[in-house]
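Morning!

This is the sequence you dropped in the shared folder:
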Amino acid sequence: MRRRVVVTGIGLVTAIGNDVPSTWDALMNGANGADYIKRFDASEYPVKFACEVKNFDPLDFLDKKEARRMGGFTHFAIAAADEAVKNSGLVIDDSNSEMVGTYISSGIGDFWAIEREHEKLLKSGPDRVSPFFIVSAIVNLAAGNVSIRHGAKGPNSATATACSAGAHAIGDSFRLIERGDADAMICGGAESAITPMSVSGFASMRALSTRNDDPQHASRPFDAERDGFVIGEGAGILILEELEFAKARGANILAEIVGYGMSGDAFHVTMPDETGSGAIRVMKRALDDAGVEPNKVDYINAHGTSTPYNDKFETLAIKKLLGDHAEKVAVSSTKSMTGHALGAAGGIEAVFSVLAIDKKKLPATINYEVPDPDCDLDYVPNVARDAEVNYVLSNSFGFGGTNACLLFKKFAD
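The structure's back. Tokens below.
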């Protein structure tokens, strides 16, 4: 018999807020995290703006020595994990530590460290490369440091599946608890990749919006005038627990995770499958995993990147999967406000999906101004709305054709 898995805690660091309350309030008010890049001089770059995290100080969570030994994505993960653990009320001690794990993914890891230490190598030679370079840069160090910080001795892992990484971490954690390998998991995604090389690379492949004269309107998912995504950063962390484990300690249950799907496009390294096949299959697998009919879905937190192909083909996939029900389902892209946080996106958007259920509110897709004939669903345009939400699908699609879908449900004992 499958063990039931519930969400008991959430934590966020995003371009529109450095914790859950501030981010959710900003999201409900249609705030926009896009602005000109402050972290480096991008004045001569083809793309000069991003959705950077603002007013974040790792020394609020770490001492100076610790902070210097970690990458920015780990700083974000620690902040969000601290909030999620506190929010859940979970106490990790000798009685349960071996059954509490960490699974925090990232698409890139600490790109800043890679660029910084490479510059040192070229300018000053190998002896100047930091002894903390490797342990600040590699992808699994967010999970590793959170594990150490909270004394979580259970499964400790990370995936680097591009923009699906955070969702895969949550789905894989769901599986670990389902089959009894853990009773609780601290899981999600973290990313800090707004760097000179990253921005240059994404711009070179023409993935980013070039609306340099109007960053606030650059991320416009499903809009006919969309021209690329806006790179973002941050972290989204969930505490998942086996139902009886959570109930035994009197935990406040925010939602239940009931389905998880994975698929591969096997089509192209960057462009989504033009038939929507991979997206259809991943959503269907999440629904089939839970034994839920497509017409039960109330809301889809779309991958919705604001790129011409993704939004068109994700819309097509939703229509093919849901049939006539697609016209009744609310679909929104919160990337219109947070930007695309790459490996953190799935974690951040999973938190938003849980909050949609818990708060009975649907986040909007802002900057939706010019309808696209190929994108003709209810995208909750520009203004958040009240709604009774029972089932939410959260989509994440990544380069290489890697797809993940999570299905959350309103909890009922």
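Headline: The chain has two domains: 5-248, 260-409.

More detail when I'm at my desk.
O.
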